[in-house]
Write a structure and sequence with these properties.
Layout lengths: L1 E5 L7 H12 L5 E5 L7 H5 L2 E15 L9 H5 L5 E4 L2 E4 L9 H5 L5 E16 L5 E8 L6 H9 L9 E5 L6 H7 L4 E6 L3 H17 L3 E8 L5 H8 L4 E6 L2 H8 L4 H4 L1 H18 L6
Parallel strand pairs: 1-8, 1-9, 2-7, 2-8, 9-10, 10-11
Antiparallel strand pairs: 3-6, 4-5, 6-7
Helix pairs in contact: 1-11, 5-6
The chain binds iron/sulfur cluster (2 copies).
């Protein structure tokens, strides 16, 4: 089963839930965590994985042979991202805008365009958890590169069999393309939020996104009791299941601040996360492995 853990915004505790869920499940079943927040991965800070494999992620960008180019402008017309332009009788390519779709070289009538790979990031994988039973994968977008989705897709290609593994995807915050790339193919999406006006505003956007993707979803309210009741009212009105509430507790915040593992210090949270996983299994319709 693949469960994406997402949030409409940063700072809601999404990575805390993802990493502690992995630490809860690893005792019972093969578990994998894919940290798809490639611009700022931080699941490794809590899981301390031993990295065993590093792979480069590259993107093919166009290179123009001016001796073969007749400046017809077709490449420029084809590119939806304005990454190749005809100006002043020359063709200019802008690799930082290129999505590597290959359209320009495909449509160039003179064969003037070839492709060269540029590095856009890395995927690191290894093992973490008690006896190294969590398979850990994360991506890192190279500084200065703007294209997170290809790195996210490279992380997701490392996913093990979803029948055998509990696979947890730690999605980036927000509702943009990288979040969609992270969540596509998941069996369920857990939206982590907090009971504040900002939390509600971002949850509404996240709900619209998962509905558009047709992924079943539910809500986890973190730091429950801190804010108001608007969030719960919204969930009730829209028949959105609240699968778990984790109360605000200064001890949890202190544990998180020093990079501690909540489920190791607070057994009640481990039980709560086990119960949450079972609820998700039920909603997805898979037999419980817990
Ligand atoms: S499509 Fe090919 S020939 Fe036409 S402008 Fe682009 S590179 Fe030159
Ligand atoms: S490969 Fe695609 S995105 Fe890149 S310049 Fe060519 S058409 Fe544009």
């Amino acid at each position: 089963m693949i469960v994406a853990i997402a949030s409409g915004k940063g700072g809601t505790g999404k990575t805390t839930i993802a990493t502690n869920m992995a630490l809860t499940l690893e005792e019972a079943m093969p578990t994998q965590i894919l940290d798809c927040d490639v611009e700022e991965p931080n699941a490794h800070l809590f899981l301390n994985p031993a990295v065993a494999n590093i792979e480069l992620v590259t993107l093919p960008v166009p290179v123009v042979d001016e001796t073969r180019c007749d400046v017809c402008g077709r490449c420029s017309a084809v590119c939806a991202f304005h990454a190749i332009l005809v100006m002043g009788g020359r063709v200019l390519a802008f690799p930082e805008l290129c999505h590597g779709c290959g359209g320009c070289s495909l449509f160039c009538p003179t064969g003037a365009i070839s492709e060269k790979p540029i590095d856009i990031g890395v995927v690191e994988s290894g093992w973490a958890g008690g006896d190294g039973r969590i398979n850990f994968v994360h991506g890192k977008l190279k500084v200065g590169r703007a294209l997170a989705p290809p790195v996210i897709r490279a992380v997701k290609r490392k996913a093990h069999s979803k029948e055998a593994y509990a696979i947890i995807i730690d999605a980036p915050p927000g509702t943009s393309c990288p979040v969609v790339a992270s969540m596509v193919g998941s069996d369920f999406c857990l939206l982590v939020t907090e009971p504040t006006p900002f939390g509600l505003n971002d949850l509404v956007l996240a709900v619209e996104m998962v509905k558009a993707l047709k992924i079943p979803f539910g809500v986890l309210i973190n730091r429950s009791g801190l804010g108001d009741e608007e969030l719960k009212a919204y969930c009730e009105q829209n028949q959105i299941p609240i699968l778990l509430e984790i109360p605000f507790d200064r001890r949890y915040a202190a544990c998180y601040a020093r990079g501690g593992r909540l489920v190791e210090e607070f057994p009640e949270l481990k039980e709560a996360l086990r119960g949450l996983w079972q609820k998700i299994e039920k909603k997805v319709g898979v037999e419980s492995k817990l």
